[in-house]
Design the sequence.
């Protein structure tokens, strides 16, 4: 399952972190829709996407490439990975053409416990009005299904793009930056289009 906003311009693919779902990107998707085509898929077993047998980074990157192709998004996408999906974004970029790779809240180390991932997410920084978009699924079995991500995070062949604020300064380094200020986050993405 995925959401799509906009019909024209460079594709931007928004990947949620483990235990969350595509709804975390709704405020940003709405902000970006007038400037580009935005796609926000649910990872397998998350949101409305069913579970599956193979959760490897390589297989999910292949499925993501098939989605981009099936939607006839003819330009190289900007791939944005939140949390553990930063690893998916970099795996995708190692095999497929991308305009840019952006990682948000990438974990410094692998943390395989549900409560540790949720605690490290920094949900307390998200404004109360936007917290419904960042509701984690407290499911140890789901996290266990993605265990290979933690055992074998990807090696980077290229560095992610660092976002810059509209005034040229460095973008803020707060958790859930895309939800603490969706309009500013969208402005930073539009600068890459």
Sequence:
């Amino acid at each position: 399952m995925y959401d799509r906003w906009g019909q024209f311009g460079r594709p931007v693919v928004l990947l949620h972190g483990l235990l969350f779902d595509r709804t975390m990107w709704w405020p940003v998707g709405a902000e970006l829709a007038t400037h580009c085509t935005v796609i926000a898929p649910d990872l397998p077993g998350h949101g409305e996407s069913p579970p599956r047998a193979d959760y490897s980074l390589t297989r999910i990157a292949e499925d993501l490439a098939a989605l981009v192709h099936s939607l006839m998004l003819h330009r190289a996408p900007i791939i944005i990975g939140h949390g553990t999906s930063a690893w998916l974004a970099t795996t995708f970029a190692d095999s497929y053409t991308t305009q840019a790779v952006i990682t948000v809240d990438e974990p410094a180390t692998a943390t395989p416990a549900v409560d540790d991932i949720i605690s490290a997410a920094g949900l307390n920084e998200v404004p109360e009005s936007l917290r419904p978009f960042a509701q984690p699924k407290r499911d140890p079995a789901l996290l266990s299904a993605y265990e290979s991500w933690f055992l074998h995070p990807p090696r980077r062949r290229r560095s992610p793009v660092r976002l810059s604020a509209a005034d040229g300064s460095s973008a803020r380094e707060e958790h859930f930056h895309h939800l603490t200020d969706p309009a500013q986050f969208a402005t930073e993405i539009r600068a890459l289009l």
Summary: The chain has one domain: 2-190.
